[in-house]
Specification:
This protein is of the alpha/beta class. The protein has a single domain (5-280), classed as Phosphoenolpyruvate-binding domains (TIM Barrel, Alpha-Beta Barrel). The protein contains 13 helices and 9 strands. It has helices spanning 5-11, 25-31, 50-60, 63-69, 91-100, 113-123, 149-153, 157-163, 184-196, 207-213, 222-238, 252-258, 272-280; strands at residues 16-19, 38-42, 77-81, 104-107, 166-167, 175-181, 202-205, 242-245, 262-265. Strands 1-2-3-4-6-7-8-9 form an 8-stranded parallel β-barrel, surrounded by 6 helices. The model has no long low-confidence stretch (mean pLDDT 92).
């Protein structure tokens, strides 16, 4: 059984349901016990702290559930959106995010083959002698006892070293890198990225910044939806899963019917009792 639930679902041809919560730790803990397949911890727009990330990841685990379920895999697989754009080739943030225990990274503004290669190399350890290796070679630093990830994954350090490789470049890897394509430059580069860099396991069609880059100030216009469809078509041709968010006009059902394999939504904040009361007194 996969430690990374998302990889297991994608290998089985299933749809992955993910969410993008706030950085409130109580909300994150609640989602960690939900039916979502994955959640994305946001550090691109909220700032990065390695210690806070470690504490957040620990709060997602229900240890009784792990024992009773007979698996080390968390119920909801934690991904982290890195604060640095992929084009920055920022190795230390990739290293420290993985060292904290993340099972997947979401890489903003992936728009070149070089950026993709750099991210994959930064996420991989150099392989042990006698083990099949893949390009690009890894250069993630080994932190020994300072690395929290082995204990978070519930593995001896030597076993973590073996399985903490990127999928599908390493078919047995348990780390998934998801690049966000959110510019016209990224769309143009995407066929080459997916052809030449096999360590990018999924692509997120990023509607917000894509809209901005196209001059539509963040609005989900028909032109932006057409660009998302182009990203999806490129991914389908390459056999790479593609993610997209829902919005006011596109439901999860719509995204699934379009062919997206990973559907992302924000948690609902419901005021059902207030709505009923307001309606009852004529203010609804």
């Amino acid at each position: 059984m996969r430690l990374n639930k998302v990889i297991g679902l994608l290998e089985a041809g299933d749809v992955v349901f993910g969410t993008i919560p706030s950085d409130d730790e109580n909300e994150l803990r609640a989602i960690g016990r939900s039916a979502y397949d994955m959640l994305m911890i946001e550090t691109e727009h909220t700032g990065f702290s390695g210690r806070t990330l470690q504490r957040t990841l620990q709060g997602l685990l229900d240890r009784r559930e792990l024992v009773e379920g007979g698996t080390l895999a968390p119920r909801v697989t934690p991904f982290v959106r890195t604060p640095a754009n992929a084009r920055e080739h920022n190795e230390w943030l990739i290293k420290q995010t993985l060292d904290a225990g993340a099972f997947g990274l979401v890489l903003p503004h992936l728009d070149s083959v070089e950026a993709a290669q750099a991210a994959v190399g930064a996420a991989r350890y150099p392989q042990a002698n006698g083990v099949a290796d893949f390009e690009p070679h890894g250069h993630r630093g080994w932190a020994g006892s300072m690395c929290a990830a082995p204990s978070y994954w519930g593995l001896p350090a030597s076993e973590y070293y073996r399985v903490a490789d990127v999928w599908p470049l390493d078919p047995a890897g348990e780390v998934l890198l998801m690049g966000i394509v959110e510019s016209t430059e990224g769309i143009e580069a995407l066929p080459d990225i997916l052809r030449r860099v096999k360590g990018i396991g999924a692509i997120w069609a990023g509607i917000g910044d894509l809209s901005v880059s196209m001059g539509f100030a963040g609005a989900p216009t028909k032109e932006v939806e057409a660009a998302l469809q182009r990203i999806l078509d490129i991914c389908v041709d390459a056999g790479v899963p593609c993610a997209a968010p829902t919005n006011a006009t596109m439901t999860p059902e719509d995204r699934i019917d379009q062919g997206f394999r990973i559907v992302l939504s924000r948690p609902s904040l419901s005021f059902a009792a207030l709505d009923r009361g307001m309606t009852h007194v004529g203010r609804g």
